[in-house]
Amino acid sequence: MKLLKQLAVFSCLLSSYSLAQTHMHGKGTLFIAQDGNTWQLQFTLPASDVFGFEHQPETKKQQEYVHMQSKRLKQLDKVLSLPNDCALITHEVVIPNEFDIKHFDKHSNDDKPSHEHEHEHEHEKHTSDHADTHADIQVTTTLDCNTAISVLNFAIFESFNSLETVDVLWTLSSGQGQSEISASNPKVKL
Length: 190
Description:
Blueprint: H1 2-20, E1 27-35, E2 38-46, H2 47-50, H3 60-73, E3 86-94, H4 116-129, E4 136-145, E5 151-153, H5 156-159, E6 165-172, E7 175-182, E8 187-189
């Protein structure tokens, strides 16, 4: 119950932080909260860094890529190295509806939509409608750890090459802090 209260307070702080931040391609955020043995890590990643675009997939190739990258996000070892003395409780990925592979045309076998002329007009409208739209992917991991985590090592930069940096904020039993991780420095010291 203490974790829920701590997460509620942290969530308010995160909302303020998120409002102050602009959506930037190549830059994600990670929030870490700890209550006793329970640790929760929540990533927010631009869809453009995960899928290469921020609109509904328009071709079979894009659909397959969304499916592959979604599967990759669901594999914990593609996101972070599980610390010693920690057990995974949950690992959840939330992908915006426009990327939902259930809505894809399963009968399309080529790399172009079946109604090419109609699609060109729709694409022009889609491009103008979504020029300022941004989509984010949420990845939330909950761990049960027998000892305090002092270092977290992230593999996410290996899986998503266009992701350049991740701002990390944490609230732990021992205090709060912030840092930045990157492909050249994928570890955060808490």
